[in-house]
Amino acid sequence: MSNIVLVVAAHSDDEALGCGGTMARHVAEGDTVYALFLADGTSSRAGADPADQERRQQAAESARQLLGVEKYYYLDLPDNRLDSLPLIEVVQPLEAVIEELRPNIIYTHHYGDLNVDHRVAHQAVLTACRPQPHASVKEIYAFQVMSSTEWNSPGVVPFLPSYAVDISYYLAIKEAALQAYALEMRAFPHSRSIPHLLDLARHNGAVHGLEAAEVFMQIRRIRQ
Predict the structure, then answer these.
(1) Most C-beta atoms within 10 A of its C-beta, which of 4, 52, 98, 129?
(2) What is the pTM of this model?
(3) Backbone angle region of 65, left / alpha / beta, with phi > 0 → left and psi within -120 to 50 → alpha
């Protein structure tokens, strides 16, 4: 039986950073994958203009095609200011997409990330996906995003992965999706550099006896 998978990310590029290989694997195994981005990703930057957002969406479309994702949704909420909105203004449009797609698996951010939009994304997902009767979502996993997950205070909800996905055959696709977001990547030895992200996938793989892996915190898994 195929799955409907939804990735709920704060910004376009977070999906490739956190679970690009896993998304590609879901697609290869016959699942239908979607992604939703909460914030516009550029409006908080000094000197930002509409062309910045257009370039970022073009990069996202390239990544979408490489990953084989069915559709990307953009809510275009204010970048790095999601905490300034009442949570319901984030939850309600997310609920509408969940109701439309009826996903059974969701991937989203870790609650302990430094980036405030990531934390709001996590909270919005759990609010929208409360396990009520007839709710479609049965599994929720939190991913890590370099330059956010590892940079917060160690006293704030550490990222403790409990679930690994073998992406040995999909690492090249993840790399290509990251290359599509070249403007958002940094030069090595920055933790959001492509060489480090590939090394991280190999490290996470080696920890589990695999060539490459993405790791997640399992937030919910309901077996019926």
Answers:
(1) 129
(2) 0.96
(3) alpha
